[in-house]
Amino acid sequence: MAIERTFSILKPDATERNLTGAINAVIEEAGLRIVAQRRIRMTDAQAKTFYEVHAERPFYGELVSFMTSGPVVVQVLEGENAVAKYREVMGATNPAQAAEGTIRKRFAKSVGENSVHGSDSPENAKIEIAQFFTDSDIVG
Ligand code: DAT
Ligand code: MG
Asked: Molecular function (GO) terms listed (predicted)?
């Protein structure tokens, strides 16, 4: 398996509770390297574009308003099988269903305020990374 990259967001519920270091520790302990990282306030346009696939879902408005409600940390993670590995480390979308030890089981507040985003495929990882980072921002 080749070295792969995935896109991660530490969401407003995580920054609000000062959990960025604790979550980064879980990421690094899993063997993923943080090769780019920036703390930003997402604009309404950025959040809408980012979650466009969910535009028809009933929670879309709530999701966009949550993602713009406070600072987020956008990241590029690198490692063997990074996309699938980070999904495993994150845990299920709903923290009530997330496995023990996962980020969402440990830190998420609810299905909506679930602390982290991770790309769901290598193709989407490339698209999502390009929304927030240029090649020169990423130092592998
Ligand atoms: P994931 O973030 O695990 O990839 P997803 O892509 O299905 O999950 O949904 C994107 C985000 O939308 C998710 O992290 C939180 C929010 N969301 C999903 N399902 C929801 C629901 N039933 N109610 C409220 N928010 C939801
Ligand atoms: Mg998703």
From this structure: kinase activity
Query: Which among 63, 66, 110 is the best mutation to test ligand 1's pocket, defined by most ligand atoms within 8 Å of the CB?
Result: 63
Is 117 known to be catalytic? yes
Could you say which of 89, 98, 117, 132 is catalytic? 117
Strands across the sheet containing 116-118: 33-40, 72-80, 3-10, 116-118
Contacts of residue 45, defined as CB under 8 A and 6 or more positions apart, other chains included, come to none
Q: What confidence tens digit (pLDDT) does each residue in 71-92 have?
A: 999 999 999 999 999 999 999 9
Atom of ligand 1 lying closest to residue 90 CA: 3
Structure tokens at 42: 């997402």
Reported ipTM: the value is 0.98
Cα–Cα distance list, 2 to 5, 22, 95, 105 (Å): 10, 27, 30, 29
Q: Are 115 and 128 in contact (CB under 8 A)?
A: no
Torsion angle, alpha carbons of 129, 23, 99, 108, to 10: -90
Q: Rounded to two decimals, what is the model's pTM?
A: 0.98
| φ, ψ (nearest 5 deg) of residue 91 | 90, 175
